[in-house]
Amino acid sequence: MATSPCSSSGVSSSSSSGLGADAGLEIRTRSVEQTLVPLVSQITTLINHKDKPKRSDKTLQAIQRVGQAVNLAVGRFVTVGEAIANENHELKEEMSVACIEARRAGETIAQLTDVASLDHPESDSHITIFTDKTGVVKAARLLLSSVTKVLVLADRIVIKQIITSRNKVLATMEQLEKVSSFQEFVQIFSQFGNEMVEFAHLTGDRQNDLKDEKKKARMAASRAVLEKCTMMLLTASKTCLRHPDCESARINKDGVFHRMRLALEQVIEIVTDSRPNGESEMAPISIYSGIKEFKNKVEGLRENLYFLSKENLSTMLEVILEHTEDFTDSAYTSHEHREHILELSKQAKMELEQLVSVWMQAQNQKTKDLMEDLEVAILKTCQCMNELKREVHSAATSLAADLLKYHTDHMVLKALKITGVEGNLEAVAEYTCKLSEQKEQLVEMCRLLRHVSGTEPLEITCIHAEDTFQVTGPQIISAAETLALHPSSKIAKENLEVFCEAWESQLSDMSLLLREINDVFEGKRGEKRVYLSLPRPGKHNANLKALKPVKLDSEEQAKIAKLGLELHLLTSDVDSETEKWEDQENEIVQHGQGMSSMAYSMYLFTRGEGLLKTTQDLFHQAEIFATEGTKLTSALHALSDQVHDDDKPLLLLEAEKLISMCKQLQATAKASAQGKSATFTKVDACILKTRNVMTLLCQLLPLCCKLLRKNKAGNGCLKPAPPWKEDRIRTGTNARTPERRVETFGIKSLENHVTNMTFLESK
């Protein structure tokens, strides 16, 4: 089957026709990836026509038009690539080779698809797409590889721009450090400000374009440092110029310059994907990530008893328990939390011992009883780890909530400002000690939150917050000491205000970070739409009021674990399908995302996690899920009115299946269930029916995507590519803006030409 044109998979994955990217080319940005998406999917569709038995005149003409269109589009694309090469001599040789390869591949495809005028296109007397099946695949692979090279080389120019901009900023910073007069400082700082604005724009665009969420978070942290430090650099430098003999003012200024240089260096590490001296980045392991990996290994024993050793599992648990010492050794962890964490650590060791014992027996003798015992041991081990995760989360977030509430009045900062203006050195010393204590508390809070943050980007945000408190605390102290020594200095007062504002801003950011960490813990997934459709006491129908909420025990969870896992896999499949749609606001996509989000919550319920705490929560979620499915059928009927008559029956048939399944699920969720056995049967039935709906949804989404694209393209007719305008080159060579030339010939320009390649749709 042809790859859907709606596909958003990167070029690095091979297609059904054997197309694949050059293994040596790693695509790190969304713009390059998304530019290649239409080329990958549409070329694949073309290739798949070589094996189709029916070749009508209409099909042959369409294939020939595709070949010609590909060749023309590649020609325009190559023209842009060659213009880039001429503007950037260090890339000229590589870019020229890639452009030549792309042009040659485009011409080959045009020759092989020149079939419309032939009486027998499959005749060996004329080499065509039908007689030389491997030739067209080779040409397509060469085209894809060479276009990718051109795009990646163009991306290097963007990186070069960022490095050049960074170098300008560094050079101007060196001048700012050495100035000795206000007049000179004002002049150079004006230039510095303009350079920082340019750097901010370039790095902001790059941050949004990065595919790796971890790198994106690191970039955001570095840019935040640079943004705040720009104002600090202004006031710290002015204070130092006003009071040149003041040691605390010099220390204050040096700290700002040092921090800015580190942030600039980190930006370059991210965009070039390199570290000084070839060091590899060793990110500290959090308790959450450790538990997640440990549970995955334990649950993997269900499928394979021999894929890891007991020593491996024991080592993983030891590492996790070592990290829990950050909590038990902390002076800020409550006695109650400390005791619970120690108890659960002890229990985790016991559960693992029991699991290993049953596991070793099962390796020797796979009886039904032993496999059931193994399943219970797996479930108990995972449940214990979940409880440990819950406990450390509670310890970290309750400490954070208390500290943020306690420090919300900023009393120490206010006192430092007052005593500094008074010139009271003794009082300033007293409050700087209190600020140092506050800093230690907040740094410890960040370290503990990092363990429970749940995602790598949030971990990085916690590390950034820790660094900010570590650095800003001493800077506030040096600024306060400067003001106390020069109490009548307006600039010293302004300088202290700026550093205090940075501290207050970071505290405010911590409240938002805490909320995000809690959201992740409660099962609300990252960037996906979150559906909070939980029942509230007294807010739903009368049947619910009479029922007592029930939680599943370990054995019941073990029985539905397989169903839950299937549901989890289906949510991933649905998410993958919805991400392939160009129009993310489409009603079908939105309903699909909503159903996937709710199904994921139901999967978490089977693991004893997430927002659904009781069986009643699950039943209500199943009702809402079924309602969302019913809304989706309405959107499907609306789509059927737009598609051609040939496609309508299949779509309507699938829509009827969906509405029937949703009605069955709704009836099951609303049915009364008295007693433990009946309740569990109802849970099992709800999850089974939800799984069936999700299976159908996995088939519906690609079908709808294909029909929409087919309808949009006019049932396979080609849209003419817009004419190439030579004045694009002239625009880029405007003498007044030489440093902006690359933008005209960069990724954006290349995107425009690749996305204009609209090819044949498979029928």
From TrEMBL:
Cellular localisation: Cytoplasm
Keyword annotations: Cytoplasm
SUPFAM superfamilies for the chain: alpha-catenin/vinculin-like
Region (Disordered): 1-20
Residue ranges with Low complexity bias: 7-18
Keyword hit for Cell cycle: no
Gene3D superfamilies noted in UniProt: Alpha-catenin/vinculin-like (1.20.120.230)
GO CC annotations, alphabetized: cytoplasm
GO molecular function: actin filament binding; cadherin binding
Transmembrane portions of the chain: none
GO terms (BP aspect): cell adhesion; Rho protein signal transduction
Name of one Pfam family that matches: Vinculin
Record keyword Cytoplasm present: yes
Similarity remark: Belongs to the vinculin/alpha-catenin family.
PANTHER family reported for this sequence: ALPHA-CATULIN (PTHR46342)
Name of the protein this chain belongs to: Alpha-catulin
Lineage of the species this protein comes from: Eukaryota, Metazoa, Chordata, Craniata, Vertebrata
